[in-house]
Amino acid sequence: MDLELQQQHILITGATSGIGLAIARRLAQLGAELTLCGRDRARCEALEHELGARTLVLDITDEQAVKDAFSDLAPLDGLVNCAGISLLDAATQVRAADLDAMLATNVRAAAIVAREAANNMLAAGRAGSIVNVSSQAALVALEHHLGYCASKAALDATTRVLCLELGPHGIRVNSVNPTVTLTPMAERAWSDPAKRDPMLAAIPLGRFAAPDEVALPVAFLLSAAAAMISGACLPIDGGYTAH
Fold this sequence. Notes:
The protein is an alpha/beta fold. It has one domain (9-227): Rossmann fold. 44% of the residues lie in helices and 15% in strands. The chain has eight helices and seven strands. Strands 3-2-1-4-5-6-7 form a seven-stranded parallel β-sheet, sandwiched between helices. Strand 1 (9-12), helix 1 and strand 2 form a beta-alpha-beta unit. 43% of the residues are buried.
């Protein structure tokens, strides 16, 4: 299967850490021309040197800033909406500010970035691919994840609507839905056996995902190998959501 992305211009949000960084590194290896978005200027500058990528220091929750950033962006072939936040509250203690923050980043900003990316592709007459990084939390209930589950379910709904409206223009839109992915932050968060072991027991494969195990399916969905796949929400969860 050919996952080559030579001369494909792909924008990645949330690219300076975690899953987004793993995706950026994998797509660079596959020959993509990258524009990487993040809030941390120092990390952006480091990625310019490491990957030879263009970077944008950008708060994607600022609609005007997003519009301004796209005003001089070269034509895109792909978008990876990876920026996201998770704030955990018990249902009886859920806070409006946390709900608002997750919806603003995980749904509203992703939709605005997708809007601008789609218009960029349409203006250039290009078919393209959009991949939204969702979560297994969109597919099943997780304790203390009310706002996060709701925001990621909304992101999957956004994926389906974008698929419907952009498909006639040759633009494919899909989601990936990872389980716990062992970024450095996640390794620390899941280091306590009392928290880790029950989750592992619920995953048929018996382990969490490695970052590149998310990056490779994203690369597949961006590539011509997935030319007939659109509107899918792909679990990358070792079977967690199968039961």
